[in-house]
Design a protein that fits this description.
The longest helix is centred in the last third of the chain and has 14 residues, at 158-171. It is built from six helices and eight strands; from the N terminus they run H-E-E-H-E-H-E-H-E-H-E-E-E-H. Strands 1, 2, 3, 4, 5, 6, 7 and 8 form an eight-stranded mixed beta sheet that branches. With 185 residues, it is of the alpha/beta class. Helix 1 packs across helix 2 (40-51) and helix 4 packs parallel to helix 5.
Length: 185
Amino acid sequence: MDIWGKTCGAILKLFGWTIDSPAVPEEKCIILGVPHTAISDFAVSYLYYRSLGEHAKCMVKKEFFFPPLGWLLKAMGCIPVDRSSPTNMLRSVIEQMEKPGRFHLALAPEGTRKPVKNWKTGFHLIASKANVPVYMGYFNWGTKHIGRGERVELTDDPREDMKRIQAMYEEMHLVGKHPERYITH
């Protein structure tokens, strides 16, 4: 592991976080990040994955990519996305995922830090089209445990899969940094 990975692990430990699981073994995958209730979820997730010696990409709205913040986000593996064209956004991510090399994509199915009942299924389309596995990543602010979670098998029915995934997350009894913003059902 490089010095940056060790530093990230030390920072997590300093703030009381416990790592529950290693990085995803597959070369390509999607890792869900739940519950997403604060911008600091990104920081904790970044520190976690880098502490494992890995890099995960994530999608961030293009409006955040102005200097110098944009340079930092790109260096951290963030992909600027134009949310005004969801079809083009998904197609672009699928194309990037199909290129040779390691590509772990971390994203929040809630799609926002606000409380939402119906999570977004874009990850399902990406995973199906690119033929990559999906893992149920989590960051529990109540216990300060973080991990990539278990692999979840998808079917051809995104809505039913989402109900099942939300139910599985509900059974985990996760606490968001802002608990009132986290809805699983």
